[in-house]
Fold these 3 entries.
Entry 1:
Amino acid sequence: MALIELQDVSKLFGFGDATTLALDEITVSVDKGEFVAVMGPSGCGKTTLMNMIGMLDKPTYGDYLLDNRYVSRFRSNRQAKLRRDRIGFVFQSFNLLPRLNVLDNVALPLAYKGMPLVRRRKAAGDILELVGLHDREYYYPQQLSQGQIQRVAIARALINKPSIIIADEPTGNLDSIDSKVVMELFSDIHRQGNTILLVTHNPELTRYAQRVLYMQDGRIIGDEKTAIGTVAKGARHTYYRKQKTTDEDLAAGISALMHKVPAKELEEKAKSKKRRGRKGAARRRSRKAKK
């Protein structure tokens, strides 16, 4: 039985001639415990789809079922409780509060549940130890690296022990080393039985997923099963093929050429070209004089 199921879901923004179709009759299901990567160009509807699944937004048309129950039939307070207790969000922009230290940022969701201060700080400390930041409890976000901040955001998403993790470009602001640390952390969370939905532009990150959804113009145009540890075929063909030569690539090529061809040889070639130019000019002057 599917944990998440969308049936002909569409989402419209705006009115009249300014209407934008963000999602176009999407039908998809995700089983419990799956690790699903969602790929597609900017503006194709990936974030809107995640907001729909996370109950941050409502479909204009169609149905969303969570655990085989229609989400539209839940009252707003019931949806808020499900969102708080069952879904953890990890964003590219981190969304930490700068005036709170790491421990209190992570413990914040428990404050909304009414948990006493001592208990929620104890729980936050345990989660921070899990993500390798137990020694940074009393630091503030501005005192941490980008990778550490993202791990704090993941700890905050895990504090309520959610069964679904929604990560929207969680490595977009990180370098390759921090990205690997964060993705290994998601991999550990997945092995514990959590369902993970990961939005990414990076085909390399499909190595961690069991399944890849490809989106374009508000529609799912591909659904590929993939083995953990390998880059999805569709991601490899689509995204690697689009890579273009940049100014840095050209500069690197010129630098390599300079190393390969000795400077003296390049100088001789330049002199030879200059001599040929002088001879050609002399011939042209001679022809003009004869005329």
Note: Confidence is low (pLDDT under 50) at residues 256-261.
Entry 2:
Amino acid sequence: MKTFIVLPAFNEATTIAGVIAAIRSLGTPIVVDDCSSDGTARVAEDNGAVVVRHPSNRGYDGAINSGFIKAAELGAEMVFTFDADGQHGVAALRAAIHLLEHNKNLDLVVGKRPRTARFGEAVYSFYTKWRYGIEDILCGLKGYRISLFHDRGAFDTRTMIGTELTLASIGGGARWAAFDVPIAPRLDAPRFGSTLRANGKILRAMAWAIWLDIRGEWKRTQRQP
């Protein structure tokens, strides 16, 4: 299967080379440089990744959107999201790829970290566990069959921190499974900024998820037989 690994990257020059080296045997890395100022794109290109450059910062969801578009252009069959900061273990990515590749009945795989990092994450995950059975909706390591992206037409349309396509797909009947993701300490500052600001973004994403579910939008994305 043609497997692509999307890495949204903002000022990750210190970690991106090591991450690319660790994962490139598992699939084609696509680094989306979200208007970095530290040479992230150059380092990624020098280490063999496909690079998409943003002339202005579009945020986490905008970066992954661009990565999915590029993967689709290149004929992807499976696309995985993976953090460029070195927190996600390669063993977890390998397990995710194996799970999706060897289980034809699955459309989506969702990572599960040993703990959440913020109050907002715990609240959002509490909701999605109750509503869908998803214990860690904000884990950045997930895997999708490209058909889910084509069905929705986008990875994210409302800045939902990497959760819109997952919830829309599962709400529309996609078959999925969870897998464990050990987490290493970050080597730099969190991408989402301060705790207060990050919790605000997360709770806003949860509010969108609840509203769109109430409106029945997820069900409208279900593929026709």
Note: The mean pLDDT is 89.
Entry 3:
Amino acid sequence: MSFNERFGPAIYDLLGGPFEKKPLIRKQRQKLLATSEGRVLEVGAGTGFNLPHYPAGVDDLTITDGMDGMLRRAEKRAANTGRHVTATRASVEELPFEDGSFDTVVASLLLCSVDDQSRALAEIRRVLRPAGRYLFLEHVRSTDPKIAHSQDRYERLWGKVAMGCHPNRETLPRIESAFAVDELEQGVMPSGPKIVRPYVLGRATTPV
């Protein structure tokens, strides 16, 4: 068992927990999930920080992650919120679901750490039905040259601290190349390290 697999879930909760208590973070997650409907898949769910924020009408929710430890914590968080989930260990780059299986796919703070963004997006698109919704929240490369320089400079160090996260990725153009983006919000989180504050939040659809 690797270090990340053994200790990663606990570190993830330890580092992420304080941010989840901030009103803006809670508001952003609620905004992300507000239009989720039908059969929903959340990829890279981690320990389940999104779970308390899904609308009451979502009653068919599947979550995936690449680590069993993450999924165990997510299932516990789901139980504590009274929500039923189906948990499946899987990489977003190789999802074990048939084409067009879901009405909505959710991903938050995920594309910064995958090995291949294009492949991950292709898999998300594959498992969505035609005109299905892809809801995303990602931190991205800053448009401020000074912060972007810091993102490049500290990329390797941050990746070791944050389980492979690359804070300097040009993620939005990748999403736009795979989906039709219907709604988009871009901004800067008010807290946390400056290199991970720039974000994009939006809704995209698959071509009909």
Note: The beta strands are 39-42, 60-65, 86-89, 102-108, 128-139, 180-188, 198-205.
